[in-house]
Amino acid sequence: MTDSGATIADRLGPLLVDGDRGGPAPDRGPALEVTDLSVHFGGLAAVQHVSLTLQPGEALAVIGPNGAGKTTLLNAINGALPRNTTGNVSIMGTPAPRRGALWASRSGLARSFQHPVLIEAATVRENLLLGSHLRLRYTALHQLIPGTRMRREEAREHEKAQLVAEVLGLQDQLREPVSELPYGARKLVDIGRSLMSQPRVLLLDEPTSGLDARERARVTELLAALVRSRQVAIMVVEHHMDVIRAAIPRVVGLRAGVAVADGPTDEVLASAEFQTVLLGAVDGPRP
Amino acid sequence: MVRFLVAVIGGLALGGVYTLIALGLVLAWRATPTLNFAHGQLILLAAMLAGYWQSTGGSIAGSALVAAAATALICVVFYRLVLRRTTGLPPFLPFVATLGLAAMIESALAIAFGGRRFPIELGFIPQGTTSIGGARFSSETLTIAALTVGLGVAVAATMRWTRIGIQVRAAGQDPVLASQGGINVHLVHACSWIAAGVLAAIAGLAYGSTIVVDPSLATIALAAFPAILLGGLDSFEGAVVGGLIIGLVQGLTATYLGSSYTQVVTYALLLVVLLVLPDGLFGSKVVTRL
């Protein structure tokens, strides 16, 4: 529950329903389909032949020890590593060309970062609004002189930023420069920015790392609300198993760049693969 | 008083040119963190082409278009073929690339024009003199000062308050984050370099109209480096303020101490400011989180 008593799901409703896109995604196949994805940095195979499918509204968590390739997998899906990646990624049924992160974001994919990437000189509000850029249909003229329609749309995005800030507990810090925020608040701003674009596919990279207990509870509640809404497909890299158990119904386990487990959360976390391989015990499949 | 006015007006005219040069340098820096050491050669190229065009009977409008198109084309091709490929590589590589571009432009101009010198006539600018506070000033000088300063302020205001300016600043500060927001970073960077080229052309025409254009004109860009360091390497507002301050300081120094003291006073001022404000007057302060 937020401080006002309303559930996060209630408050997120207007944010998640995409009026411009006419509601939930049309049935064009999986929200995210990864086929035989590999990432190499020189001789190092960071991700090896990973395949997974995420349906619209579905959620999965990617777990694994440090160096397993979890963030690299997200970077590859996001289009941040076009020269190092082989295999195929499709977003909302459309294969991704090797055009980088811009194509992915315009296809409805948004992400947060393991170490929050923000515009340091800008305020919390301005950083949140960066996520709105995709939704504001600027013409060349509007880039210089916004008209009435554009100002109306911008006002709507400002209201949305206020809503996101309230959901994340940042409403009192909207005017502060992010350079002055503690690490936990910066993580929340990064997550909020990714929500502002009303994505079809949301990638969250360790959203609760560096957060205190109260912040982690807020993010866990937010994740659970997003999952229940089934409005957005979610892939989250996470180390806190309590967060995964509370919010995410499916888990994919990575070790040394290889997917070694994929299934319902309770099953995977109780399995021998999790206990021995993903926790880094002695025996287990070698890549 | 008359002497003071002469110094100020002259300084503003020079400061306006520095402002345009500084803005071009800042645009290139914000796009691809590169100090464009070919900027002076771009200014020279624009002035030479405009002067040559006029010498063959062409109009001022035609000469301006040719000059701006040439510099813009060189900048966008250079960005596309060279600077995009240096992304992620050590920072000295794009720096060396701009030195190479400078050498290529100078050599090409030497081959094309040899030792020829060209005047530039800005026919649309009022001729004659204007009286201000008892002093008489060239109307051409006053007009160029007003136009260059006005254009510099307009560019800085565009970068500060328009949506396209936000895109340029976001793409320059963090290309990854800007891409996440749907900003076509490569397009924004290419347009920044085109704008830098056009500003170089305008600076070349403005400054070239006050002298006779010869290869030494390229050194004007070096004279503008104190302006961007004073204002802040990544600040558009700083480029305007820095350019005007340096121009005024040089105007006042030349009038009251003599032109041989202008460089000494300019760099002494720069040193004092940087000791107190290492990032310049408006430059972004680097925050290191421990």
Features:
heterodimer, A: 287 residues, alpha/beta, Rossmann fold, 11 helices, 10 strands, disordered N terminus, disordered C terminus, B: mainly alpha, 70% helix
How is the secondary structure organized here?
The complex is a heterodimer of chains A (287) and B (290).
Chain A: H1 8-16, E1 32-41, E2 44-54, E3 59-63, H2 70-78, E4 85-91, E5 94-95, H3 101-106, E6 109-111, H4 124-130, H5 140-144, H6 148-168, H7 183-196, E7 201-205, H8 213-229, E8 233-237, H9 241-247, E9 250-255, E10 258-264, H10 265-270, H11 272-278
Parallel strand pairs in A: 3-8, 3-9, 6-7, 7-8
Antiparallel strand pairs in A: 1-2, 1-4, 4-5, 9-10
Helix pairs in contact in A: 1-6, 1-8, 4-7, 6-7, 8-9
Chain B: H1 2-31, H2 39-55, H3 60-81, H4 92-113, E1 118-119, E2 129-132, E3 135-138, H5 139-161, H6 163-173, H7 175-180, H8 185-208, E4 212-213, H9 220-231, H10 236-256, H11 262-276
Antiparallel strand pairs in B: 1-4, 2-3
Helix pairs in contact in B: 1-5, 1-8, 1-9, 1-10, 2-3, 2-4, 2-8, 3-8, 5-6, 5-10, 6-8, 9-10, 10-11
